[in-house]
Amino acid sequence: MVENRLVGMKSRGVYETPGGTIMAAAVRELESLTLDRETMQWKDMLALKYAELVYAGRWFDPLRLSMDAFMETITATTTGSVTLKLYKGSVTVASRKSPYSLYREDISSFENGEIYDQADAEGFIRLYGLPTRVRAMLEKGI
Predict the structure, then answer these.
(1) CB contact at 8 A, 3 and 13
(2) Which domain holds residue 93?
(3) Does a structural domain hold residue 16?
(4) How far apart are CA 138 and CA 23, in angstroms?
(5) Is 111 a member of any domain?
(6) How confident is the model at residue 117 (pLDDT cuts 50, 70, 90)?
(7) Percent helix, percent strand, percent coil in the chain, to nearest 5
(8) Residue among 27, 37, 34 at smallest CA distance from 84
(9) Long-range contact pairs involving 108-112 (C-beta distance under 8 Å, separation at least 24)
(10) Which GO annotations describe the biological process of this protein (predicted)?
């Protein structure tokens, strides 16, 4: 890879971390079960800044310590088991489970209606799309 160094020059480097790749894939799969969408988005955004701090040698920076506290809090329930298949440098998930999984088949089937009622979606879609409708009305001069 060609990377941008902190001092502004570009350099070439080769990094091989098969163990890290496997571990990252497994953790990511557990997070997909145990974290909600917005928390995952914030975690991903902070991960980039975290990597910059560490790369720049700012390990003892108060910001990095605060980010650690955030990550520890949001991943407190990220535990379980993941089965991966490894083949010619690729990692494929075969199964995953967690006692803290946010996935519930009784909700995600959309057919039962006991917890999730499809009729609720109509009002939500109308409300969620309100900013887009207002912009369209503005553009039409309404």
Answers:
(1) yes
(2) 2-103
(3) yes
(4) 50
(5) no
(6) confident
(7) 50, 15, 35
(8) 27
(9) none
(10) argininosuccinate metabolic process; L-arginine biosynthetic process; urea cycle
Number of domains in the chain: 1
CA distance 63 to 94: 37
State the CATH number of the domain containing residue 10.
Answer: 3.90.1260.10
Tokens found for residue 137? 């009305």
125 assigned to some structural domain? no
Mean pLDDT over 9-27 rounds to 91
CA 123 – CA 129 distance, rounded (Å): 10
Angle of CA points 118, 38, 43, to nearest 5°: 155
The answer, as to whether pTM is greater than 0.70, is yes
Closest CA relative to residue 75, chosen from 119, 36, 120, 111: 36
Distance CA 134, CA 142 (A): 9
Give the residue from 26, 18, 20, 22 showing the smallest Cα distance to 95: 26
Residues of 27-41 as b/e, b for ≥16 C-beta within 10 angstroms?
A: eebbbbbbbeeeeee
Specify if 114 maps to a domain: no
